[in-house]
Amino acid sequence: MLATDTPLTEVVTATQGLDIDKVPTLMGDTVSLNSQGKTTILYFFAPWCQVCHASIGNLQALFQKNENIDVVAIAMDYTGAKEVMGFTSQHQLTFPIALGNEAIKHAFEITGYPSYYVLNEENVIIGKSMGYSSELGLYLRSL
């Protein structure tokens, strides 16, 4: 995983051709992986990941209870949009779901699922984690 205190501009600069401001979403538009003036949690998941299924509800609860926190989930290692749609529908997710790719996986040094990065308002990584996290654990990482 990337080190804390890493500005996202360094991640993008190191990966030529990667535009994290216009990542395609499940709904056919684009989303930015940059913080939009709020603390932001980037949640990297795979639809087949059982730990992701177990922990995504905690992320949804945190998002619903905290208007000062943005969440973007990035689907990785999926076979098609239908597989990702099944995952999001099963968990009734209301935050944006980006369709990740190998360039994003490499840039963010994702080696397992779920992986989380917490960004501050200045787009600097202030927290990170891999594996299951409770709602409280996610909240504490976002402070």
Structure notes:
- This protein is 34% helix and 22% strand.
- By secondary structure, the chain is an alpha/beta fold.
- It has a single domain (8-135), classed as Glutaredoxin (3-Layer(aba) Sandwich), CATH 3.40.30.10.
- Strand 1 (23-24) and strand 2 (30-31) form a beta hairpin.
- The chain is globular.
- Strands 5-4-3-6-7 form a five-stranded mixed sheet, covered by helices on one side.
- It starts with 7 loop residues before the first helix and ends with a helix.
Topology at a glance:
Layout: H1 8-14, E1 23-24, E2 30-31, E3 39-45, H2 50-65, E4 69-75, H3 81-91, E5 97-99, H4 102-107, E6 115-119, E7 125-130, H5 135-142
Helix content: 25-40%
Question: What portion of the residues fall into strands of 2 or more residues?
Answer: 15-25%
Q: What sequence of helices (H) and strands (E) makes up the elements? A: HEEEHEHEHEEH
Biggest sheet: strands side by side, in what order?
A: 5-4-3-6-7
Q: What is the quaternary state of this protein? A: single chain
Task: List key phrases describing it.
Glutaredoxin; 143 residues; 5 helices; two-stranded antiparallel ribbon; globular; alpha/beta; 5-stranded mixed beta sheet
Brief overview:
The chain is α/β, with parallel strands linked by helices and 143 residues long. Helices cover 34% and strands 22% of the residues. The longest helix is centred in the middle third of the chain and has 16 residues, at 50-65.
